[in-house]
């Protein structure tokens, strides 16, 4: 596998996305922004978790399940060295994750949360792997509530409205890794029970794009044509795409045209050629 294009642009104080690669694997993680105080000094729990797991994956082997399980166990030991796991379910560090490895003549892709993966065939046909639908539905409902709060209360800034949304977001976060809820990477290996694993022949795939929601908003929310984005990534124009993404967001800092939870999210991607 060869990395054609990769990048990660932080949206706030800390970059809570992380990406990496080893000889036979590529991955992308999107830490879930903490909804309370962070335990880790000098960073957020979300940034710590995503980057710890990413760094650990470099040293792992085996299936996607085995690699992530090893990373979770190491992260949990590091976290518990500073205290017990949080009692509130919403306070548990978590992250969306995509991990792809080559297993002989097969590709194995594991997905958790709303990190997304697109498989591009040799003839250019694109297949989006399913995943994250429950989490996306919860986020969409929360965004609708955010818009309603601002409509009900008149001129109110995004930050003030977002603060009022915290109880709902904590309730949604408490649904992680539960029956009927959504599945994301956490400090419990049981979270892997909900991982969606896809295996496809290497011969059927020319390249693979992984992206966090902060990046795929470029075409999912802001209207950039996906084929154009893919073409520009292949042409080495990832940084220019990020500049365009941030220009759109800076022109709508309060999220009135494009409702969102914060002015900027971390935006990351990895495009690999198989």
TrEMBL record:
SUPFAM superfamilies listed in its UniProt record: PP2C-like (SSF81606)
Q: Highest taxon of the source?
A: Bacteria
What residues does the PPM-type phosphatase domain cover?
A: 10-218
Q: Name one Pfam family in it.
A: PP2C_2
InterPro entries in the cross-refs: PPM-type-like_dom_sf, PPM-type_phosphatase-like_dom
Recorded protein name is PPM-type phosphatase domain-containing protein
Originating species: Asticcacaulis excentricus (strain ATCC 15261 / DSM 4724 / KCTC 12464 / NCIMB 9791 / VKM B-1370 / CB 48)
């Amino acid at each position: 596998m060869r990395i054609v294009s990769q990048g990660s642009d932080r949206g706030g104080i800390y970059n809570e996305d992380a990406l990496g690669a080893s000889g036979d694997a590529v991955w992308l993680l999107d830490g879930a922004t903490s909804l309370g105080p962070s335990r880790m000094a000098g960073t957020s729990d979300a940034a710590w978790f995503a980057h710890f797991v990413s760094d650990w994956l470099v040293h792992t082997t085996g299936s996607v399940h085995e690699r992530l399980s090893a990373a979770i166990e190491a992260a949990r030991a590091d976290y518990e060295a500073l205290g017990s796991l949080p009692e509130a379910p919403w306070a548990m560090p978590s992250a969306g994750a995509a991990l792809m490895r080559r297993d002989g003549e097969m590709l194995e892709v594991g997905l958790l949360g709303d990190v997304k993966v697109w498989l591009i065939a040799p003839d250019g046909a694109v297949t989006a792997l399913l995943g994250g639908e429950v989490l996306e539905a919860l986020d969409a409902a929360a965004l609708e509530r955010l818009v309603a709060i601002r409509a009900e209360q008149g001129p109110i800034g995004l930050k003030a409205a977002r603060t009022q949304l915290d109880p709902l977001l904590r309730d949604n976060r408490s649904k992680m890794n539960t029956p009927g809820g959504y599945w994301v990477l956490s400090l419990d290996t049981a979270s892997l029970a909900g991982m969606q694993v896809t295996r496809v022949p290497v011969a059927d795939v020319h390249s693979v794009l992984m992206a966090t929601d902060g990046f795929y908003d470029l075409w999912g929310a802001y209207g950039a044509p996906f084929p154009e984005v893919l073409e520009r990534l292949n042409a080495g124009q990832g940084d220019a795409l990020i500049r365009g993404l941030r220009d759109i967001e800076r022109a709508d800092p309060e999220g009135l045209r494009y409702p969102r939870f914060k002015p900027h999210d971390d935006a990351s991607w990895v495009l690999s050629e198989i």
